Amino acid sequence: FSILGEIVVNEVNFVRKCIATDTSQYDLWGKLVCTNFKISFITDDPMPLQKFHYKNLLLGEHDVPLTCIEQIVTVNDTKRKQKVLGPNQKLKFNPTELIIYCKDFRIVRFRFDEAGPESAKKVCLAIAHYSQPTDLQLLFAFEYVGEIYHNPAKKVNGIDPGGGGGGSSIGSASGQQTPLFETYSDWDREIKRTGASEWRVCSVNEGYMISTCLPEYFVVPSSLADQDLKLYSYSFIGRRMPLWSWNHPNGSALVRMANIKDVLQQRRIDQRICNAITRSHPQRNDVYKSDLDKCLPSIQEIQAAHIKLKQLCVNEPFEETEEKWLSSLENTHWLEHIRSFLKHSAELVYMMECKHVSVVLQEEEGRDLSCLAASLIQVMLDPYFRTIVGFQSLIQKEWVMAGYQFLDRCNHLKRSDKESPLFLMFLDCVWQLLEQYPAAFEFSETYLTILYDSARISLFGTFLFNCPHQRVKESTEFAISKNIQLGDEKGLRFPCVWDWSLQFTSRDRLLFHNPLYIGKSAPCVHNGAVKTFKRSKKNYSSTLRGVPPALKNGIISEQEFLPRRNSLILKLKPDFLQQAESQSNSMEQYFRDWFAKPVDLHGVILPHVSGTQIKLWKLCYFRWVPEAQINHGGFITAFHRVSLLADEVDMLNRNLRQYKSNSSLQGNCSELDHSRMYFRANGLNDTSGAPDFLSSSFPFSPIGNLCRRSILGTPLSKFLSGAKIWLSTETLANED
What we know:
Among the domains are: 8-132, Pleckstrin-homology domain (PH domain)/Phosphotyrosine-binding domain (PTB) (PH-domain like, Roll), CATH 2.30.29.30; 146-151 and 178-512, no CATH class. 35% of the residues lie in helices and 12% in strands. It contains 23 helices and 16 strands. The strands form 4 sheets. Strands 4-3-2-1-8-7-5-6 form an 8-stranded antiparallel β-sheet. Strands 11-12-14-13 form a 4-stranded mixed β-sheet. A two-stranded antiparallel sheet has the order 9-10. Helix 8 packs antiparallel against helix 9 (322-332), helix 10 crosses helix 11 (369-381) and helix 11 packs parallel to helix 14 (422-436).
């Protein structure tokens, strides 16, 4: 085991990993190992029927990180018993079978028919114990950084722990790094990038002196003095003062704010904050407040929808007829919640873009729904956040540093009643936009899926804590207990998820790049000279234009969107209803006009949210289902073809440059090694077919992840006639 600090805590030989539920002919024999980082199955047998597997440098083909385990079920066939194992529980029977349910919808199943009964029991108990730690400092990241500080010469996969950004390897051609927003300078650069001249970086929370759930540095209106902020902070829940997120070129700002708990001071403080935001607008325009707790589904509703979605995808998909399954999908309300977030975010885009008003996102604590809404608004408005580095900086700014509770919401310690997959819902919303506007995003859906997976690898500090202060506090305590000298550092430095070289080779990281992406400028050769032209509004696709005139299921809601300086002091006027109606008509006209024009891929993008335009993210939720896999099909076939075309264009450009400069052929060959495409053309007019290993699950493989009846898939005729081929969890647990 190559990762520093990883130790084997238990293992058992002669274990059989089940590959299919209706036959044992494909099963693999090997050793099941539990470490303090993952469970691993080590075998010399080749994986049957598998033609491709991308390699994660931290995890083997059969490995599951401990933080990705959701439930552990032990079964004894002869006694017809099964038990869900919690931490520190006893097992009164010798297990003949172990079933691991994973948070990424995988099911992995092992048989102990030939293994020693006591050894099998011990390894099951070890997995239950180490996958359900009782304390944050027992997560593997702490063990790893402790070893790094004691052995500074040793590194994971030859790389230092990520304290300074990372991400440059997949950032951009210029080698940009991902800003972490831990410093004053990162925030200052973002102010300058967005032209927010009437805003300033505030250091009043240095050392987390005001609020433990805010970053040390954040941006506030220039007209608000530090003393006022300190005074106002006592009135906000969690002392979370208003946080600036982004500025529109027209001067309107996007701000996040927690509720004011001091009822007596509420109106006065609210008015002062809104006045300060108004003064930060070049035209002194109004402030529009959106109460997210009233407009959007709650975190409990999102969690309930996710549980239903998981049951649908893992236990009983397509059970009998497609119609029934689609009805069940609708009943999960998952897609309905996706639609709500996209719709509301688009309406707030209208307020900033068309009405030129600053938008304040108000939420009780200001660290859940506002993370998602603020991020979506910025993805729609700012093309920078549709690049890889920009998107990573957005997550750092609006999630990691803004205090999204990753520890509780991802339930890393398996004991939180606060679990809710808001981060997954955000990635799903971004995928919907990527699906509708593929040429507007630098990253691929593979990138989004792997980012979701990385949130459940306990080596990275990025998605491990509830807030930056918790990282500092917990790691400082850990350092003292382990006799680690921190010096001037604020807590231990954990590996950063944006350093993708920790997980993937440079070749595999090319899968993150979207070949359909149209960059800000593209090289153009004219009379032998390379020029650059700006891409104008692109007549992208007729399907991206035109929505039904009646937008009942579209973007417009029946709620009023009257801009106001302060919602708490607004007096209802007699002509209020006419104004609200006029506002709604204006918004409807804005959307109708926008959808009627060609899409500017480097301007605003708005979602289609009616009917079937919101889809299930199949790569993420169906990648482990053998029957749902389409061999030689799915989006990857288009991805492959476009990659070859893009590579051919790159080759033509290189040939033209070589022709112009009369450089040697050898120089040209060295350039060929720097292709930005995962799939490369063998030469111009390459007509080679798609690789045999391409499928709708690519680059993942469902083989060996036991979700279904058969590894071989279902014949279409049986599928259409409604053959019942799926197993429920209970049947699966008791089947031999």
